[in-house]
Amino acid sequence: VQLQASGGGLVQAGGSLRLSCAASGGAVSTYGMAWFRQPPGKEREFVATIRQTGTRHYGDSVKGRFTISRDNAKNTVYLQIDSLKSEDTAVYHCAAGRPILSSISDSALYYHWGQGTQVTVSS
Fold first, then answer.
1. How far apart are CA 113 and CA 117, in angstroms?
2. For residues 76 and 27, what is the distance between their CA atoms, to the nearest angstrom?
3. Helix/strand/coil for 8
4. DSSP code of 26?
């Protein structure tokens, strides 16, 4: 499956963004779809995932502010980001895989990746 992420940009702190991850060559409903992010100079970090069943899981640093969703008809996964903070500045990548529940935050278990979209939060 090929993934195309979009929707990033420059936003003021406290603002919102919606990132999109459009898939082709495979159905997003058959994968565990995830968002990871990599802040400048830091390691890649798990953000959120929506599993084939529709259940959702979030990284601790984004709980309550980020919402992952999926539109099967559009074959697209979204990441709604609210109450943006400067520490949310990162390149955001979408990914597809089939990790077991205990390993959903392990980026090595996702074998399809989009190219990334930059989110920059100004204070």
1. 12
2. 9
3. coil
4. S
